[in-house]
Hints:
With 134 residues, the protein is an alpha/beta fold. The protein has helices spanning 5-13, 31-41, 81-94, 108-116, 127-130; strands spanning 18-22, 45-49, 74-77, 98-101, 120-122. It has a five-stranded parallel β-sheet, sandwiched between helices. Strand 4, helix 4 (108-116) and strand 5 (120-122) form a beta-alpha-beta unit.
Amino acid sequence: MYGDPATIRRILTELGDTWAVVGLSGNQDRAAYGVARVLQRFGKRVVPVHPKAETVHGEQGYASLAEIPFKVDVVDVFVNSALAGRIADEAVAVGADAVWFQLDVVDDAAFARTREAGLEMVMDRCPAIEIPAL
């Protein structure tokens, strides 16, 4: 349910190439750093979203989704499950097409709200694992 193969494929290949990665900072020891690099290798534009608003992998960072001055296609969420629902709601508010909750990030209510709003959603999966398999 959370990682329907057709939805995964659609998000990774059809919904657009601009990914806001929430939780991405310049810390190379964090999973978000490596996942963002993989997404870039597969042609995605990665936009860091972190309170520090750091530039990462050559892309300007923003403190929140609302501060990004252009359309974001997919919001990739690297925060704990307790905070993830708020990010999903922000993704809906900014007009994203999809939300992707990373491994171990699960919020059933946020999943339902996001889908009801018409966005695609994947939960408890990693795009860096999924995209090379396409």
